Amino acid sequence: MFAIEAGKPAPPLKAKQLDGAAYTLAAHKGEVVILNFWATWCVPCRAELPAFSEFYRKHQAEGLSVLAVSMDDPEDLAKVHKVAGDLPFPAAMYGDTQAGGYGRIWRLPITFVIGRDGVLRYDGGVGERGTFDLSGLERTVGPLLAAK
Predict the structure, then answer these.
(1) Pick the catalytic residue: 33, 45, 68, 91?
(2) Which of 70, 75, 91, 101 has its CA 20 to 30 A from that of 41?
(3) Contacts of residue 90, Cβ cutoff 8 Å, sequence gap at least 6
């Protein structure tokens, strides 16, 4: 059971990025935020990362923020760094992330999308598991970016 619900304020999130910098959801208020929970061993996760990268490159100037939170074990940090090194947005390890309000991450990938107003607009933890491609990101996140 998830502790959050689309249409309600997104729970706080704090993370230590792989580069050591701090990430807080509060610092990104006014932006559209994509939180993607993934792992190096998760084939669907790895398949959707290029779409997130392309979408981010295309829309970052419009106020888009993405954080990729790896669910890998700490001993797999080198693998995470190798994959995350190709991402144009920050990544963090779940063990270095305070995201309890997002419920139990029990399947991967899981993506949450938060609007500029800090409200959860897409909860990838409910319903059928799916992965995002570029057209899915345009349909789901594009309208949120267009709303100023």
Answers:
(1) 45
(2) 101
(3) 17, 18, 19, 21, 23, 66, 67, 68
Write the CB contacts of 1 (distance below 8 Å, at least 6 apart in sequence): 103, 104
Residue type, 4: I
Q: Which of 33, 42, 108, 141 is catalytic?
A: 42
CB 25, CB 10: distance < 8 Å: yes
pLDDT tens track for 25-66:
999 999 999 999 999 999 999 999 999 999 999 999 999 999
53 is catalytic: no
Does residue 42 have an active-site annotation?
yes
Q: Which of 89, 4, 19 is nearest to 49 (CA)?
A: 89
Higher pLDDT, 123 or 115: 115
- Please report the pLDDT score of residue 58 as a whole number: 97
Distance (Å) of CA 90 to CA 3, 80, 94, 100, 113: 25, 12, 13, 20, 16
